[in-house]
Amino acid sequence: MKHVFIVLLSLGFAYSAAAEFKVKLIKPKGPDQFQTCLAAGEVTFAADLLVEGKDQTKFFNKELSSSRIIALRLAVFNNGAEEIVLPMDRLLLIGPEGRETAPLAPKAAAQAVLQGVVVEEGSGEKNTVAVTPTMQDPRTDPTDPRYDPRYDPRYDPQNRTPGGPYPSVATGPVPRPGVHIALDPEGIDYGNVSKIERSLVEKEFADKAHSADPIRPSSTRDKFLYFKMDQIPDGIGGFIFTLPRSKGIAQEIILKF
Question: What is the pTM of this model?
Answer without folding.
Answer: 0.65
